Structure formats: C-alpha cells, structure tokens
Amino acid sequence: METWTVETNDGGGQLEVHTFRPASSAPIPGSQAPAEPSGVVMIHGTLVTDSLYWPFARHLSVLLGRPVHCYNRRGRGHSAPQPPGYSVETEVNDLESVMQASGSVDVVAHSYGGFVALNAVLSSKINRLVTYDAAVSLSGNLHGRWRPELEEAVTAGQLDHAWAHLVQGLGTAGPISYLPMGALRTLSILSARTRLGAEMRSLLPTAVTEMRAVLATDSTLADFAKLETPTLMLSGGWSPSYFAETGRALAGAVPAINFAIVPLQFHEGPLRPGRRLATRIARFLSGGHVSAAVGT
C-alpha cells in the first residue's frame, strides 16, 4: 500500500490517499516499467474512514489487475476538515481531484459515497460507476430518516444518544437498528471502548453535516435522465429496503443504470471478508472479463 496526498482545489488543504496495486504491476528491477493501467477510485461511506475498505480495495486491485485508490473524505485521518460551506459540491470536487491525480477513470462507491458518485457522474468524466447501497434522497424518500434529535445530541455532546438516533433512523446496522434507544445507548458506551467504536463517535459531527447535504440535494428521476455512464447500482439482500427501492426506480427510468440485489449481504457488505462482492464489481468494471484463477 502507498500513502500519498492530493491538494483540494478550493485551497482547503489535502486529501489522504491509499493506493493498492496488484503485485504483477510492480516493475522488475533494472527494467523499464510499462505504462500503468488506469485506476479505480473507492469512496467510503459516513461515520467511517477509508481504512475499513483496504481489504476490499486490495481484492479488487488483484481481480482487475489495476490500481485501486481509497481516500479519506474531509474530516478524517490526515485529510482536510469539512469547510464551513460544506456541500455535495465539496465532495464532487474532491473526487475529481483524486481521479485526476491518480489517473483513474472508474469509481466504486458505498453508501454516502454512492450519493457523492451519482452527483459527480452527471458532470465528471467517469467511465464506469458501481454503487452499493447509494444513500441518494429521491423525491424526498430519505427525509423521514433524518432525526433532528441527532444533531441536537451532537451539539450537546451526548454522543451515545446521537449514535442511537443515527442507527435507528438509518437502519443500516442490521438487526441492531431495531433495538430500543436505551439498549442502543448502552451498546454505544460499550463500543466506545474499542478503537473502531471510539472512531465512529468522533465522526458523528461529520455525519450530521453529510446527512444535511443528502437532504439538501434531494433529486428526482428527471435529474438523472441524461446520465450516459454505464452504472451498476447494487444493494444488499439484507440492507434496508429503501436502498433497493431507489436503485430500482433509477434503473427503471435511466437506460444507463442497471440494478441488482446481492443476496446474503448487509449494508456493510464492502467491509466484510470475502471476494464475492469484489468479483461482481470487477466483472462489471472490466466488461465481464475477470481472470478465472481469481474470479471465484
């Protein structure tokens, strides 16, 4: 893995990028390295950093024989903080900066990352796009998922209460999402003792800002009518149903979009072990051509 940075185009600072390359692309000492194939950019979801996607990115890189670049969005790791005027345009511009600096043409995006990518693909030069459980608000369908209590709790520093409202509102934590508020607050307290749990709590303020950006960018089917980039929208079989409803609606209205359910997968599918999801995505990005030796 290589770690490097990209300057944002608004003067806000840097974005931290982590790149994975297949071993076969490493140059032989003393030889002239061949031109590197175009890359793939991976956009992570909310309340996490890009590090959770590294195993997935590594699998995808091997399957494609191409570099895969993960980056920390604003407010994470060594990337710049979210600016005062943060919006979806901030994220779209950051994605374009990473794509240009890395020589990438394809994008894979999860959850909030899918929201960013589907807004970017309308104006950016993306060759192929894959989203998994894209968090797009379509004709107001996500407005009911927003809980003002979440922002109020974050402002008051009541992070366990805020985490519980986020989990219940979005329903993305599987069966845990349906637990009573008291049980969820207890889980938050316990998880805060782990590195991942503590990290998620620290990112709650960014989740508030990002949820506001999703609702402020509420879309209609007509907004995607001119989309021409081949796009595959995937949703986990065990993910909240609203992700699949959005994917089906867009695929039914936009010829360039295909939609499919991935059986036996939760919302956090790209974060779980295994190659099945990566293989499906690699086949789409490569036009159906994935090495049989690794494409199982």
Q: Can you walk through the features of this model?
A:
This protein is of the alpha/beta class and 296 residues long. It has helices spanning 54-64, 88-102, 112-120, 148-155, 159-170, 181-191, 195-202, 204-216, 241-253, 276-285; strands spanning 2-7, 14-20, 39-43, 68-71, 104-110, 128-132, 231-236, 257-262. It has 10 helices and 8 strands. Helix 3 links the parallel strand 5 and strand 6 (128-132). Helix 5 crosses helix 6. The protein is globular and about 55 Å long.
Radius of gyration: 19 Å
Strand element count: 8
How much helix is in the residues? 25-40%
Query: Secondary-structure element sequence?
Result: EEEHEHEHEHHHHHEHEH
What is the distance, rounded to the nearest whole angstrom, between the alpha carbons of the first and last residues? Answer: 24 Å
Task: Strand order, main sheet: write it out.
Answer: 1-2-4-3-5-6-7-8
Structural class: alpha/beta
Task: Outline the fold blueprint.
Blueprint: E1 2-7, E2 14-20, E3 39-43, H1 54-64, E4 68-71, H2 88-102, E5 104-110, H3 112-120, E6 128-132, H4 148-155, H5 159-170, H6 181-191, H7 195-202, H8 204-216, E7 231-236, H9 241-253, E8 257-262, H10 276-285
Parallel strand pairs: 3-4, 3-5, 5-6, 6-7, 7-8
Antiparallel strand pairs: 1-2, 2-4
Helix pairs in contact: 1-10, 2-3, 4-5, 5-6
Provide a short characterization of the protein structure:
This protein has ten helices and eight strands. It has 296 residues and is an alpha/beta fold.
